[in-house]
Structure formats: C-alpha cells, structure tokens
TrEMBL record:
One of its GO terms (molecular function) is cysteine desulfurase activity. One of its GO terms (biological process) is cysteine metabolic process. Its EC number is 2.8.1.7. This is Cysteine desulfurase. It comes from Bradyrhizobium sediminis.
Length: 407
C-alpha cells in the first residue's frame, strides 16, 4: 500500500525513539504486548487530570464524566467488534479473565462428567487452563483439534472430534506462536449445526484482522487491550445477549448487584452483572482511544503493511543457515516463530538484545503446541503497524551474526 507512511506512524509512538544498548530499538515483541501511541497516553492523562472519579453511582460532575468515558469506551469496543448492542460487551482485566469468566459461569453450568470440550492444539494457556479447571473439577474431557506440519488448521479433523457429548468449542482466531489464522466462521457453522456453542479467542486476531462477531456468529469473543495499542489491565468479553442474560455472575461485590439483604441477593443485568467492584475505568477509556487510533489508520491498510513485512521477514530469515521457521500456514498473520539449530532460543534472544532487538523466546504460553512440533522453545518475531522493512534487515543481520558466533 503506497499511501502507508510508516515513518509518520512511528512518530505517534514515543518509545520507538529509544536507544537500547546504544542501538535504535527494534521492537518485535508485539504479540506479547504492543507499544502505545501518544493518542492513548494523552487520553489516559486527560482522564486522570480532568475526568476522574468512580463510575455509575455518583451524582456529581466528575462521576458523570468518568461514567460517560467508561460507557463510551464500551460503545467503541462494541463498534470495533460489530456487536449489535453495547450491553453485549463486558469489561475484564484481559483476555485471560474473559475466558475464565465464560468457563466458570456458562461452562460450569453446562459441562459435567464426561462432557467434552474441543480446543485446538494451538491454544494459548489462557484458553486451555480454564477448561482444565472444568476437567479437574467437573470431570470434563478435553479434545484437541490438530494442525498439519505447516501449522494449517485441519477443519475436517476438527469436525470429526465433535460428538453428542461436545458441550463447548473454544478456539483461537490467530495463533500467537505460528500466526495461523483459523477459519472461525466455518468452525462456528459446523459447531452450531450440532448445537454446540463457540468461544473465539481474538487476543491476537483482533489486532490484525477485521472482526465482525455477528458475521462470525460466535457465542463469545475475547480481546485484550494491551495488544491493541491500549493499556494493560483491560480487556473485553463479547457475549450474545441471550447467553449473558442467562449466565450466573462471576465475581461478587459492588456494582454487580440489584439488591443485597441479609438472607438473599439479586443480581444486576449484563454487562454490570459481570463487572464486580470498581472497574478499570481509565484503562477502558484508554482502550477506547486505542480503538479510535487503529480506526484512524484503518485495519486494511495496517494489514497490508504487516503482510508485506511478514513476507519479507520470511524471505530474509529463510536465507539464514539452519534456521527453521515453524508455522507457514496458508492463512497467517505477521508472526514468525523459528528455531536455530546451533543454540537455544533464549541464547539468540539474549544476543540480539545487544543489537537493540526485542523478540520473545520460550514456550509462548503454548506448551501443547510446542510439544506437537517437538521443540522446547522458539524465538518469535511479531510485527505491528509501526515496524519497518529496515527493521527486518536488522533482525536478519543480527541473527546471521549470532548464528556464526554459536556455530
Ligand atoms: N490468547 C492469546 C492467543 C494470546 O496471545 C494471549 C496473550 N499472550 C492471551 C490469550 C492472554 O491475554 P492476556 O494475557 O492479555 O489476558
């Protein structure tokens, strides 16, 4: 996309001007957490400086301003996901809490001994462990949808796993290790044909792909703010109204109740039923600003820039001796995991840090997936809207140099 001015975009991110060990920062750890534009940082300051109080129960000016900001952010998230109504958006601390919320309310009510939960082998631990809780505590059975050697999701194999005991499908829309994009709309269609609800983990995909929860027709969709150029401590759960309104509460406390008496309690309507206590008010407002920022650039322009970075990175890394890229699926986002024969992923990450490069090394909270590929760790370079082709060159040169050193 010729009109994409990455230099201009980079100016929006103050941290990108840093020098690390005397070298310009090359930040390629975006799948773990993305950096924040001035628009978000300024919005946070503004909210704390002139719009701050607790939300919902106040009758004073600042309480109203904070409530407007917080509820306005909910509208922005609803728009971002194309939800039909903003009360289908529950604010959480992140994707992890959103998935735990669904597992512990919706899941625990419906899933008993011998009932099956289908996950993909690519799931992040955030979309595994909450279901393991149901295995441990309710006697549920977890089944794993496979990927092939290139990391392609195998939809026919997935379909074969569904039985009349399947009570839930929980699946990522984009692997945080391989970058594989899962055809979630197709997954939902297949599951719904058997009456099985589907949770989609959009922690990675929502940053890179257009998301339309009504088109996907998923029952639940989760996002996390810090990967979307927003603050930490904020995420969101989209849930179909018919589900949210029937679900029991998750955490108990203020804000989520209708009445509390000595011998009984009644609960509020969604989304407040699921937002016990003082919520992450300013973080939500910051997430709203991040969504505005992304929209101001445009997801499709961001995506074509990132796709071009991905293609270039894969070409450059393939030139390096004994480097093996893990995950070359046909549908793939801007994440490259690789293994180097001559040394451990941690050693490579540590060495290239000296060149100012930030990548992640390890299991990326996806141990079943690494087991599937027979590796104990990978290095991962993950790209964002502000990365450049020059940075790919810096990475490739640093890896080649480290490779010579270790060999
Ligand atoms: N799912 C995926 C695919 C992720 O990549 C992550 C974050 N690495 C999560 C869930 C969890 O997000 P958070 O830690 O923000 O709750």
């Amino acid at each position: 996309n010729g009109s994409y001015d990455v230099g201009r975009v980079r100016e929006d991110f103050p941290i990108l001007g840093m020098q690390i060990h005397g070298k310009p920062l090359v930040y390629l750890d975006n799948a773990a957490s993305a950096q924040k534009p001035k628009a978000v940082l300024n919005r946070l300051t503004q909210a704390y400086t002139s719009e701050y109080a607790n939300v919902h129960r106040g009758l004073h000016y600042l309480a109203n301003a904070a409530t407007e900001g917080y509820e306005g952010a909910r509208e922005k998230v609803a728009g971002f996901l194309n939800a039909g109504r903003s009360d289908e958006i529950v604010f959480t601390r992140g994707a992890t809490e959103a998935i735990n919320l669904v597992a512990q309310t919706f899941g625990r009510e419906r899933i008993g001994p011998g009932d099956e939960i289908v996950l993909s082998i690519m799931e992040h631990h955030a979309n595994i462990v909450p279901w393991h809780f149901l295995r441990e505590r309710q006697g549920a059975v977890i089944k794993w949808a496979p990927v092939d050697e290139d990391g392609n999701f195998l939809i026919d194999e997935f379909e074969k796993l569904l039985t009349d005991r399947t009570k839930m499908v929980a699946i990522t829309q984009m692997s945080n290790v391989l970058g594989t994009v899962v055809p979630v709309k197709e997954v939902v269609r297949i599951a719904h044909a058997r009456g099985i609800p589907v949770l989609v983990d959009g922690a990675q995909s929502s940053v890179h792909l257009d998301v339309d929860v009504r088109d996907i027709d998923c029952d639940f969709y989760v996002i996390t703010g810090h990967k979307l150029y927003g603050p930490t401590g904020i995420g969101a759960l989209y849930g179909k109204h018919e589900h949210l309104s029937a679900m029991p509460p998750f955490n108990g406390g203020g804000e989520m109740i209708r009445e509390v008496h000595r011998d009984y309690v009644t609960y509020g309507e969604p989304p407040h039923r699921f937002e016990a206590g003082t919520p992450p008010i300013v973080q939500a407002i910051g997430l709203g600003a991040a969504i505005d920022y992304i929209n101001s650039i445009g997801k499709s322009r961001i995506r074509s820039h990132e796709n071009s970075l991905l293609a270039y990175a894969q070409d450059r890394l393939r030139e390096i001796n004994s480097l093996r890229i893990i995950g070359t699926a046909a549908e793939k986002g801007a994440i490259v995991s690789f293994e180097m024969k001559s040394a451990h992923a941690h050693d490579f990450a540590t060495v290239i840090d000296r060149a100012g490069i930030a990548v992640r090394a390890g299991t990326h909270c996806a141990m079943p997936l690494l087991e599937r590929f027979g590796v104990t760790a990978t290095c991962r370079a993950s790209f964002a809207l502000y990365n450049t082709h020059d940075e790919v060159d810096v990475l490739a040169r640093a890896l080649a140099k480290a490779q010579e050193f270790f060999a």
